[in-house]
Amino acid sequence: ESIQLWLSLFLHFTLPSPSPLPDSGAWDVLCSGHHSNRVRGCDKFGCGHFNSKRGSHVHKAVDIVCDDYTVVHAPFTGMLRGRVQPHGDSSTNDDGVELSNSVHCVKIFNIRPSRYKGFVSKGESLGYVLPMQEKYSGITSHLHLQMCDKSDPTPYI
């Protein structure tokens, strides 16, 4: 019994502890010039929080307040997996990118990515926010942040 205790203590204090999952905590601030990721409130175009009503559908994302043309940063380290177009058309605001790692997968819309593929570090520039005011006068300018599985990203921001 004392040998088992000794061995257990020896292993506990000599083996390295497993490293935590990458970026399993809070994400970085997405928009330059902001100190936090603030979810868009309600305006005449709707509300920006997760599960808000959008006409006949439910908003399965959050809208993060950002000024038009603001630089957008990677919320976590990962791989850019390609272009995403939420509307499937050629409108000026129909652009974005998918970012994922072993823990998270997000789609970030209403941005013009500087590239669509490759490795990015947390905080690295992804591109800039597309101009919302040109298409939706009076809307609170924002980017659209959606988990790939459409779960709620709010706990991470």
TrEMBL record:
GO molecular function: metal ion binding
Source organism phylogeny: Eukaryota, Metazoa, Chordata, Craniata, Vertebrata
Entries under InterPro entries matching the protein: Dup_hybrid_motif, LECT2
Domain of life: Eukaryota
UniProt similarity note: Belongs to the LECT2/MIM-1 family.
Species whose genome carries this gene: Lepisosteus oculatus
The name this protein goes by in its record: Si:ch1073-204b8.1
Tagged with keyword Methyltransferase: no
Keywords from the UniProt entry: Disulfide bond, Metal-binding, Signal, Zinc
Signal peptide as annotated in the record: 1-16
